[in-house]
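Weekly modeling sync, notes
Attendees: S.R. (lead), two postdocs, one rotation student

Agenda item 3: backlog of single-chain predictions. S.R. asked that every request posted to the team notebook include the full sequence so nobody has to chase files. The rotation student volunteered to paste the first one in as an example of the format we agreed on. Action items at the bottom.

Example entry:
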Amino acid sequence: MQTLRIAMAQLSLHVGAIEEKAARVIQIAQDIEDQADAVVFPEMTLTGYPAEDLLLRMDLHERVEAALKSIADASLDLNLDILVGAPVFDHGNIYNALIQIRQGQEVKRYYKRYLPNYSVFDEKRYFEPGQHDCMTEIAGVPVALAICEDVWFDELMAEASAQQAKLMISINASPYHVRKQEQRVHILKERAKQGNMPLLYVHWAGAQDDLVFDGCSFVVDATGRLTQQAAAFREDLAVAELRLGDHGLYTPYAEELPAELSEEAEIYQALTLGLRDYVRKNKFKGVVLGLSGGIDSALTLVIAVDALGAEAVEAVMLPSEFTSQMSLDDAKAQADILGVKYHVLPITESYKALQNALVPALGENRPFGVTDENLQARSRAVLLMAISNATGKMLLTTGNKSEMAVGYATLYGDMCGGYNALKDVPKTRVFKLAYYRNTIAKVIPERVITRPPSAELAPDQKDEDSLPPYEVLDEIIERYVDYDQSATEIIDAGFAKADVQRILRLIGQNEYKRRQSAPGPRISQRAFTRERRYPLTSSFDDYLK
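Predicted structure, as returned to the notebook:
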């Protein structure tokens, strides 16, 4: 019985680390040589994904070609094929390529045919679509090649089947959102059945800015059965064994599949990975955050500790005259549970000093209002940024997607920071994630989760004094932002007209705040990042009609 062995090298991406990635490709190929006929690396291995306008630099392409030569040179004495993704500059055009290298020579360059240009993807800005034949061979076996979007269409598989391919290999950079893996597996099962051949899907596992890549490289057989899956949200190296059987079909050996993650477990791992990679790849010494005693900062603190370790995390309580004793107690309790460095820095004096400094401009005895609430938030930001500057730790901001949508946050105040782990997490999901994390170990005090949310910037303040209940708010936001429903459609779905008009007005008015907000990991299909591009200045007022 003939056996074809393909190693799937699921790496963590790091945009621009060309020579580092080439060295890893070589090392992995050397380590796996005796166990595989070929080793396959993800889409755009040498540059990371998305490399954005770095792709327009000729010096990048010169470094990529030098890296490919170094891999080819190192493969001279290796008895396996290396398949690696990279951008290629060819006759004045840039292509998203899969390069096959064997014993010092390039034996195949396949250029991606279908270029995604929707959601977070912008590939038509950089690449030309390829026209190359998709066929190659590994260990004498005819194999078809694909790059990510190619397998979402049936034409390439039909071509591969017509040319008697025995296997399709797809290299990928497919950004995560909730339950994305289910979609991938479903599509590729259909492709495998269509072509009557197994399909290998090799993927990244790491984060780049706001995008998370969740790993889970996998194999499906010709009947569409999932036979093997690599680890989620971390690097892995898995060897797929395909055995020649009846009718010339190759059948992958079935391994025990990992347990399916719950939505909360999946999202929590994505948030943790996103924060870890952003901090480490940007070479920050750790993180600092304001710990208010509320649920958003509590969840952010746990994510930070899980991502980086307690020794790299610093929490600061910055009480004002409106901060409750409950908040003081709960913040300290959580800091103690997690073992992080913790300070209490009252802002009352600095806040009062700023109020007094404004008297010549705003007068005395003016009524307390949003100006004074924002002064408190900005007083806190000054101290937190000072700690960040002095320690080299990045400041985390802690607002959630619900707040970012309607502008329930202070620009240059609680929005101040370099990264926001909860940026794409609605408030209702924040509660679910807090409960989930406490099922592993109780690290968030119970009343932090159960108490009514409050910014504590005014006497007896509650979030729902200014906003609809979060269950209502989040569904209106989801319908309008994620699914582009109009005001009429949302109202017809049973929501109060006044609530809908107000929330949609706030979403429109606060685009300028979101443009200035910190990046954070994308977990939804429509985050406030690169896939939702609305003008800052607009008179489009659908919510009034």
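Discussion: group reviewed the output briefly. The domain at 264-464 is CATH 3.40.50.620 (Rossmann fold).
Action items: rotation student to repeat for the remaining queue; S.R. to check formatting next week.
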